[in-house]
User: Fold these one by one.
Assistant:
Number 1:
Amino acid sequence: VGKRAWAHGKACRHSSRHSGPRHWLCHIVRVFPPGGRGKKVLIVYAHQEPKSFNGSLKKVAVEELSKQGCTVTVSDLYSMNFEPRATRNDITGAPSNPDVFSYGIETHEAYKKKALTSDIFEEQRKVQEADLVIFQFPLYWFSVPAILKGWMDRVLCRGFAFDIPGFYDSGFLKGKLALLSLTTGGTAEMYTKDGVSGDFRYFLWPLQHGTLHFCGFKVLAPQISFGLDVSSEEERKVMLASWAQRLKSIWKEEPIHCTPPWYFQE
Amino acid sequence: VGKRAWAHGKACRHSSRHSGPRHWLCHIVRVFPPGGRGKKVLIVYAHQEPKSFNGSLKKVAVEELSKQGCTVTVSDLYSMNFEPRATRNDITGAPSNPDVFSYGIETHEAYKKKALTSDIFEEQRKVQEADLVIFQFPLYWFSVPAILKGWMDRVLCRGFAFDIPGFYDSGFLKGKLALLSLTTGGTAEMYTKDGVSGDFRYFLWPLQHGTLHFCGFKVLAPQISFGLDVSSEEERKVMLASWAQRLKSIWKEEPIHCTPPWYFQE
């Protein structure tokens, strides 16, 4: 079945059983296609091991979204050996100031002249085409792994993702959705207001507000799979299933209100 | 002068002017040496350009701390081309589980067997020797640049910086001080509770609490040089001078109380 189920042209998928007029269910599907049909999703995935739980979460998302009729692209950062360092290698040709190198100024200029290095350009193309960007990663030090931080540092450059002015609600990626799907070693109890690690919303602030919202993304609620250090096989299955279940109606979700009260006052 | 000023053995530094008994000032210095004498400082520095303002802040710190008699070591991450990616290349020899690679498990095992790659080991040695670690960096996406995130991901591994249990106040780097010295493009007004980017303390949470405090560091107040995108040459000089001035009495400072109230309620 997969995405082809919703992409039927002349014949409906029940045609082998119904040689007469088109089946009533298929008419309904044509009038009310499932939310994902025609949507484009980019999954930016940062785990070293395909057999990991992060790998499974990524796989489940690809399968479920494809089944809905979405076009799914995965940037598998470790297998791409993605470059995380922001250096002058990111611009081709001569710098605008050969004496003093400013990464922000030079990449802004290079973006305008189409002189960014090709790996950055390729990721920007994927983001530009996407309706939804899902970030799948294990929490490292209350944040993304460095390889994914490097994706943010290098891909979301001025000119492409924002300008000054032209940020937060006016960020250039407005109209797109973003979602963080992450795993933690520590338990959900540790990530509560009175837990040792504080409310999980605290560590989401730099990522969801400072990065994604800054670029104009509407942010969907995070998907957090807590406590992997102590979870049983059964608990992991439940977490995987709940992710798959959520994705079935992901296109109907309302974004969070990505401002301080969501993080610090609720 | 520099650090040798305070390291005088037989003769005091005024000996060329005083051939008689030791000068009174030198006696005082012997009884009350300045705080930095004999202290070791590691500066983890993440900027591409020596002529940058970050470069100047780093230079000022090296000079002032050396003058006090500290031994100062700098890890200049870009010039080292420091590896930010957390991969199986970080362990030498056979992994403990050849079928499924877990970075956390494998590096913990490798630490115990002294089988981590040499660049990680070398940074751990510098941290182990330091009384104070200063991180000097420009804020990228409300956080550290990826190259510095990679330093945190790879150097502060389980077994070296913490264990479970053995974190926060019991973290293995307890007894050491840490300080974030960072620059922002945005102004101080933007980083207030009612500003577009929220209180600057919000973005410090993952770094100061989630990372440094987790490893046991006592955290000194951050040094934030705001508004570099709009600052005049004169304003930059003032910021540099205030950093140098602060460092003169850095060893007398009390650490912040690194828990949620400092970040979210004051």
Note: The mean pLDDT of chain A is 90.
Number 2:
Amino acid sequence: MSGSTLGNSFRIMTWGESHGAGVGVVIDGCPAGLALSEADIQQFLNRRKPGQSRFATPRKESDCVEILSGVFEGITTGTPIALMVRNENQISKHYDDLASLYRPGHADFTFDRKFLHRDYRGGGRSSGRETIGRVAAGAIASKLLAELGIDILTFTKSIGPVEVPASAYCFDEITGNPLYMPSAEYARKAEAYLDELRMQQNSSGGSIECIVRNMPIGIGEPVFDKLDACLAKALMSIGAVKAVEVGDGAAVSTTTGIENNDAFTTADGKIVKNTNHSGGILGGMSDGSDLLLKVAVKPTPSISQVQQTVTKDGMPAELSIHGRHDPVIVPRAVVVVESMVALTLIDLLFENMSSRFDKIKQFYSEETS
Amino acid sequence: MSGSTLGNSFRIMTWGESHGAGVGVVIDGCPAGLALSEADIQQFLNRRKPGQSRFATPRKESDCVEILSGVFEGITTGTPIALMVRNENQISKHYDDLASLYRPGHADFTFDRKFLHRDYRGGGRSSGRETIGRVAAGAIASKLLAELGIDILTFTKSIGPVEVPASAYCFDEITGNPLYMPSAEYARKAEAYLDELRMQQNSSGGSIECIVRNMPIGIGEPVFDKLDACLAKALMSIGAVKAVEVGDGAAVSTTTGIENNDAFTTADGKIVKNTNHSGGILGGMSDGSDLLLKVAVKPTPSISQVQQTVTKDGMPAELSIHGRHDPVIVPRAVVVVESMVALTLIDLLFENMSSRFDKIKQFYSEETS
Amino acid sequence: MSGSTLGNSFRIMTWGESHGAGVGVVIDGCPAGLALSEADIQQFLNRRKPGQSRFATPRKESDCVEILSGVFEGITTGTPIALMVRNENQISKHYDDLASLYRPGHADFTFDRKFLHRDYRGGGRSSGRETIGRVAAGAIASKLLAELGIDILTFTKSIGPVEVPASAYCFDEITGNPLYMPSAEYARKAEAYLDELRMQQNSSGGSIECIVRNMPIGIGEPVFDKLDACLAKALMSIGAVKAVEVGDGAAVSTTTGIENNDAFTTADGKIVKNTNHSGGILGGMSDGSDLLLKVAVKPTPSISQVQQTVTKDGMPAELSIHGRHDPVIVPRAVVVVESMVALTLIDLLFENMSSRFDKIKQFYSEETS
Amino acid sequence: MSGSTLGNSFRIMTWGESHGAGVGVVIDGCPAGLALSEADIQQFLNRRKPGQSRFATPRKESDCVEILSGVFEGITTGTPIALMVRNENQISKHYDDLASLYRPGHADFTFDRKFLHRDYRGGGRSSGRETIGRVAAGAIASKLLAELGIDILTFTKSIGPVEVPASAYCFDEITGNPLYMPSAEYARKAEAYLDELRMQQNSSGGSIECIVRNMPIGIGEPVFDKLDACLAKALMSIGAVKAVEVGDGAAVSTTTGIENNDAFTTADGKIVKNTNHSGGILGGMSDGSDLLLKVAVKPTPSISQVQQTVTKDGMPAELSIHGRHDPVIVPRAVVVVESMVALTLIDLLFENMSSRFDKIKQFYSEETS
């Protein structure tokens, strides 16, 4: 099957390994008529670029994207858009000893068992660099959404025990700290926590929140392709994500119907909900309230602390991962989460266009007139 | 697009509304050679059937399944298997007043906005009866898994504040109580809690846990079709599910790398993990440990307590839902969760067969010899 | 994989065997808001119904269709539409001797080798009755097309050596003869030819032509999902079809560029082609001229003349197929061809809606305003 | 939708325009363990490379392929294989005047109407260079088939009126002439015919035949994904193809049942057919005989003879296409046909692996033991 393909109407296929020639993506289904430049994409990629703070690996990678097709005179043509980032700064020797060792928390073991032959250098296909293709495509999806008036806000909700309460959210501060937290104050606490862990050669988990504003109503398909179902798949497909929550999420298990139901009322002549426990989704379709999503991100598995493991042959071995790794994945994953949400929304927005026959008739009557 | 289709190699398409002629499913991709009877499917359907305890709606529905195609002389033929359950006991008048009202927590509003024209009777396509198709197909997927030696255990982890700690799990007791809890003692506590809520005309949320044992290693595709990603979509597509967790789930956000990494070791000459924080999945592929999944289920939105809402035209209205509804969705959802997991696993097991060329060559060499 | 699923935005899944409980189809992706009754579908099914002339099997089958879901108060709801036709008049004993024999020109042998276990009664899944699901879904696709102003005309082009030249086409006469030929005169000649063959216990091949008028321009996707490519797959998937031609078809191999190119000009202020060698498709997209399609249909393989064959075990055997079979497949296949074309066009018309971003923006601006 | 994606288990996505940065393909679903080098692919690409004879455009293009991912130490890893060919020798000025003119027989008009904004340089996405991605992927599919013992033979059947009769086939001579005809003698006749047409500034159509030997039995799925249906789509998706025939093809329309049925018999203890009118396919599944396929290719639409056309604004215009074009497409299309067949067969071979449960059980019992 095709594990590197996502989406239907807006379909992407990503490729590339950490230490191969490069990484990239092809987008099949981007409509014609969008103004698009490499700068639009680069700006998104830079948000996941390493080496920007002491909380991200000091690896210097320019990660410059090249548009290879699908754009003519600065406008998309409706044909596949191929994007590529050449790999640089590959120090494979750091990884040579990993050819025969299975790193705990990594995919070395499962890749080996599934495919027998794997590119072990830097994690190969399971490296964080795999997300470059997602983010490059996500930049295009985000630009399409922006032009439709849909706005996605993504930020670090927590790092280890340091969680920003909703009451303290100050969205202007998100880009003001290297951790992308909506609070400079909590960001400082989190930085202190991370400094401590780094001294212990350890790493931290965290969580990311995503808020989508101004969604049209009715996006998402009933039953299996529900909006929340498609978002859950997209978000859980991010390597380190272990939990996905919508609206009140896990908390609904301890609540009651009268508390959890969002009452309908009207505002400015429109039907709205008094509350948003549902997180903007009812019956798998957007209900007009903000989409509220949250994911839990596991700690960076690559730590320099000594760990017990085995070789390919099952011989016991000790492992201490040197090289350069993030003490926490969360900050660089923020833009990956935003990209996966954007890719999912655009795909479902396009799917939705054939839901009602009156709209289809109108579409083609204009077309033919 | 096709919101009622799930899977690729083992593909199902469900159909049917609460008060239409019936509900059903077609399975396209079930291999030939499986012994299959209506009893195999009925047994699964009975686990979601209402009227079995005071914690489920007293509606009496026989929900008898009919195999319409794909089985000849008790054996599957490899052609599509069509399954149908006729609707009975439909008291539409209960719902006539709901034609113009939007029930809080239900899909009435979003269905109306997406499609303009909806079958409002009993929730139509968004009724719990929609899951009959899932469970009927899930019964077949489960039988295939069982013959492959893969075993799925699903149960109620919590109802409201009453949560069974893993230390108290007694799996033999699951079928011994109407709530499918792995502890008779906690089940009694939960029943008391539900009785109280019912007197308040209220309902409760809860959570369901699923454990899959004896998974082959390497199932799931890297990147977008990861095992956990596909499971997350399948589980989040269940109407009332608001959170999906794998392994330690949301808890990973507050843990550290050294705590969260599962060390590799050997046992009986096989490479295994010392712990299972990962929930049996590394890099999106099964790692040989048990799969550990958990979902949060929201409280039944249909409560007889008076709620504020609006009419289709936005006029304020008061709503008190009578008719017959479960005080908690969880017990009947247990088999739905198990079905969605089974459907996802079978699909990925089939996909996985073309991952390695040595296995493909072996397959066809036998074929042609 | 899923051999019984067709389409993407307008997806159908068919099911059923010749002598099972019935045959049917589920349509996932039909938009909401189409007026639809069982009569709309029955009328289409009747065009393929046997027993209507001496050139079709005298089997009497009522083939009454039942709408099981997706339609409420006579209007489609946007949810899956399940359609079923119960099987009747099944005289399985006619086929008992075929359990162990491979009929020449039939799928008995290949089904046996692929699946090992097959429903041999009346050809099981490879029976002509499999097309009932296609035609039932095709009736809905055709109604959607008609409301979009797109008109499909399908007829018998030739039976054996009797071919109606385009110069003799009189479309009013198509329904006036049992062979659906656009010429009463040629129909009489073809009937005489068929009478002769029947006396010889033999059967005849033929060809079917399909003309689609008033197609919007630009339908079909460049590269792999070209309009002609999708039509070719849909048409070649009809059991007896062995060739598919578009426009001048096979004749282009002996022509030259200057002859084959259709010059552009203008008429009524619109850009049109002077000729239509292309058959209404350029670069895989509709060009505004009529779509011109032609398929070749092989002779009915079931003949009562004695044939040489083998048993499952490879033992030589003589076969003389009795029971009731059409001396020619073509007339009953006309509506199947029309259905496959309609299903393909609707799917591509829906896909096309997300080709241009200006149209998408317009769609959602209306949506949200 | 995604017009540049083909296949399911072995999925490819192609990209690139004639005068953009390059053209390429990503293959998602190639199994791990295949030895693969750039030379394997280059050798295939060279068969479609221009400038090799006076019957192909003298454009000199090196068309050097680069493997960007999915191969490690010369062996495929099971992850996506990205292949790229940089564009060179782009003389865009040749095409500047075509920005506003619609070339007869080309996709300029339909691209413009579908997408509004198009890359007109050299036909952009509809250029023959689009097939480079197909052929690069086809080279991999062909290598997989070869290792499974399946052999594809493709050649020029006819050019204009010069058709090689089957009786004259000498397959050793195919590569001995620039037209890839299975007869040096007929190739000379065809060359003479082409020289004449070139002097008339005209071009010729032709036909291509493809024979697949040693197919396993039962490949292809019943109903919609029949082997012949999938092949028809793949072949009709080649820009210039206007007809696809299987086995006796269009000729079946004038034959009778007793003539067209292939009698079964046994040879070397295997069940075989006495004849092969079916072209190796019964009921949409391979029947063990050679696959016999034929396509009709239209004449090169780019001719320097003066043609009538219109501008984008509908103004009448005269067009004489200079620049460098093939007098016939057929010879360079031979490897494209072979590639499309190979891609389709591999995809269906992989799909077929989950058809029988006994084989699946065997697969996983080996896996887990």
Note: The first strand of chain A starts at residue 5 and ends at 6.
